[in-house]
Amino acid sequence: MITNEFQITREQLAQFERDGFLVVRGLFNQSETQSLIEHFMALHSKGVSGELDGYQAPPMEESGGDILKHFPRMMHPHLWDETSMNYMLDARFHTILKALMQDEVLATQSMLYFKPPGARGQALHQDNFYLKVAPGTCMAAWLSLDDADQENGGMFVVPGSHQAGVLCPHPADPAKSFTVEEVNVPEGMAPVPCDLKAGDVLFFNGSVIHGSYPNTSKERFRRAFICHYMPESSTEISQWYKLFDFNGNRVTRHESQWGGPCGTEDAALLKEAHEKMGAH
């Protein structure tokens, strides 16, 4: 049962509408975050050994020195992992998202980012560039499983950037980002660090510019369980995403054009998106 401590206040709602994001501290407890860490690390081990159909990770000796090839992110684990589905549809997410969206909520995606020591970050981007939710936008719930700060590659967000709409990206620096696209920060705005403790959740609008820098720590992971959602009243979403209501039932919407996985790792896909959006 959700108690009043997980109901957002008018002040929090006003801050979300102004900045495009909101941090809810301690939404999940230490026992839950540690259990999720152990669960996903066990799944990763099965992915390395080839025992897992939904996720494969090459052994470190076959990664070519790229730690993220050994620890690739898990995309849509809720489609094959009951634990991921249960957390994606957790009532705490539902309560807060419904208040922020002012609408009923549909779940669209889950992801697990491991981000071990030495891993590159993800260049500044906007989620609805990929999800293509319309009308309106998607919403992210970014659950930090480890304490996340600037040393181990914590999140940066650009307050107010949701007001600029979805921008067309340009190529990112591959030495710093494992995805290949990046957006410019609008004039007068700047990215700010968003340090989180394990169990904190960062909720943000799909047009908010956000990203992270490399994990420069020696031994600290920055694991995060990330889910995306959309308003029930939205009528379109990219074909990459399957929808569920909070009872776990499949829901369908029209397929919007283009879109793609949340954060492109293939430069050819970025070029194709530019051509389709009329960028030069």
Separation of the first and last Cα atoms: 52 Å
Helix content: 10-25%
Mean pLDDT: 92
Order of helices and strands: HEHHEHHEEHEEEEEEEEEEEEH
Beta-strand fraction estimate:
15-25%
- Strand order, sheet with most strands: 1-10-5-12-3-2
Structural class by helix and strand composition: alpha+beta
- Give Rg in angstroms: 18 Å
Number of alpha- plus pi-helical segments? 7
Give the overall form.
Answer: globular
Ranges where pLDDT stays below 50 over 5 or more residues in a row are: 276-280
The largest sheet, given as strand count, sense and whether it forms a barrel, is: 6 strands, antiparallel
Can you count the beta strands?
16
Describe the structure.
This protein has helices at 10-19, 30-49, 67-70, 82-88, 91-101, 128-131, 267-277, and strands at residues 21-24, 74-75, 105-113, 122-125, 139-144, 155-157, 170-171, 181-182, 192-194, 201-205, 210-212, 224-231, 236-238, 243-244, 250-251, 254-256. A hairpin with a 5-residue loop joins strand 14 and strand 15 (250-251). The chain contains seven helices and 16 strands. Residues 276-280 have low confidence and may be disordered. The chain starts with 9 loop residues before the first helix and ends with a helix. The strands form five sheets. Strands 1-10-5-12-3-2 form a six-stranded antiparallel beta sheet. The chain has a four-stranded antiparallel beta sheet with strand order 4-11-6-9, with no helix packed on it. A two-stranded antiparallel sheet has the order 7-8.
